[in-house]
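Data availability (excerpt). The following record was deposited with the supplementary files.
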Amino acid sequence: MCHAALLKASAFALKRRFRSIPGRPLSGNPIAEPKAFLIPSARRWNSLIRAHVDSGHFHTALSLFSAMREGGARPDHYTFPLVNRAVSSLASRIDVGEAIHCLAIKAGFAGDVYFCNTMMEAYVRNGGVSTARQVFDEMCLRDVVSWTSLISGYAHVGDFDEAFDLLHRMRAEGLEPSPVTLAVLLRACCAAEDVVGGCQLHGFVIKMGFGGHELVQNSILTMFSKLSCMEVVQKLFDDTQNRSVASWNILVSMYSSMGDVSGAIDSFEKMKTEVSPSSETLTSLLSALAKSEDLRLGKKAHCHAVKAGQVDAVMHASLVDFYAKCGELEFAVQLYEEAQTKSSTLWCIMMWGFLQNGEFLETVRLFQRMQEAGFMPGKDALRVLVMACSHLGVLMWGKGIHGYSIRNNTLEAGGSDDTALGTSVLNMYAKCGSIDFARRCFDRIAEKDIVAWTSMVEGYAVHGLGMEALDLFCRMKEEGVRPNSVTFLSLLSACSHSGLLREGCELFDCMVTRYCISPEISHYTCLVDLLGRSGRLGEALDVITGMIVEPDGRIWGALLASCRTHSDSVLGNYAAKKLFDLEPDNMGYQVVLSNIFAGDQMWEETERTRKSMHREELRKKPGWSCVQVKGMSDVFVAGDKSHPRVGKIYEVLGCLARQSEESREC
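Predicted structure:
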């Protein structure tokens, strides 16, 4: 916005904007205020405004500025930069920034470099990069901070080319970048995933002599760690002198995010010999230990945090997440309940904990508690809830959550979070039997990632719609989306369930030859199942004996099931022996083998197999069913008598059995 346009703003409009800001000074504020309005000195007003800005009371700071003007005090060289700091910390209040800008111009500060720098920052943080650029272009004098502020703005909105062009212009005008400028540009390389540009900038940093600056060092380590250059990070870290806690945290966090648990633990142990770990260090370490489910080391980290007094809100949430992922759900719940203030993040972590441990109904109940506590569910919480409904098979609940998301425009923005939620919704419909609704949800996803495409393919596979899955795969390739190993697994499953032998074999070859994806045991299992269902048992056995990975129980189980279908007792007995060596306690395979023998009327072998099952006291894990009545779900297991109305239930079952028997007799 140009100066002339700003000067046209009316005084009434300015006053109205300031009065619309909530948070005028209230009693009980930790900063003294009652007599401030009687003080005419701009210096005293600046002290009050600075105190409120430093303590995070940004709305009150702006109200104080409004009161300062109403009281007749004239803002000075320091007032407007202080107010700009408050505006920078507010979300989406660019109108307030414009009002401040207009007042500053009228007060004669349009050419003040300090003010213009803070004004640019206020515009940038409120999404007004183009307006910040106008301020920059109209400045008669610019310093390094001016250039850095604008570079940061363009990097923030993803215009990395313009950010680096500004660097070249800055140097052409005789100014060299500061460590802060370089840190901003290094973050830009990280966000752009530009490894080559990052390496070039690293060389420029060394040439400029900033290689030993702590901020620049840590920015370089962060950039290469985010770009997955683990060896580069480790070498740079080893060459770094006077390593700070932040440097060690970057290293531990890198190994944790890359799934290298031993690397994270080793870095943590070495860190303790140089500096004291912070709560951020322990949080990163717990994340790594949760992936490996290392309960012993996790408990040691917990004890260390308690002794060091480092259990803050983030650490508390990390501990809940760690114990839940390690299967210690009871302890995770205890820690959760002990939290004095429960943030929406903590609620969501506990919901994930219930979900990951198979407590789907508890997930729903916790969500209800979250709503009763006055929290608005975010996209992550809704996603957990949708996944719980998928596992329970409760379509009505899932539809309700979907409707809530639509009414609150949760699925309309088109970001990665919306794609994840939309994918969870389509998965829910597919698993609950509504494949048409699943396809509608898929079509409504604005930005379809590989997970969304694969989920829709998997939905068709589960419903036996192999041709639809293949058609979707063709469309996926046309739109330039590269399939991954999970996509091919879903496609092979679809072909297997639909009897598409030729198409399935072609897909397997395409995965290996065209996309250079190495088959995993799951891909081989699908191929064996596909061949076995088509009666090509010999070829299925050749696949198992010729594959490069070690066969497991699943692949021999697929062959055994096909042997039962095609009554091949010889090959079935061979597959069963392989299975019993791998999973001797799995009764399900013993049952399949006895059924194969019975189907071929090999009664002696059938009797021998069943006696072996009884002798070893094998028990098959019972299945369970979920019945929804009037919005309430009840879970039943075969032979279960734990339900409070078990007498009435079995009475009705008996009545139904008698009616079924009578109808057959008729």
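Summary of structural features: The longest strand covers residues 624-629.
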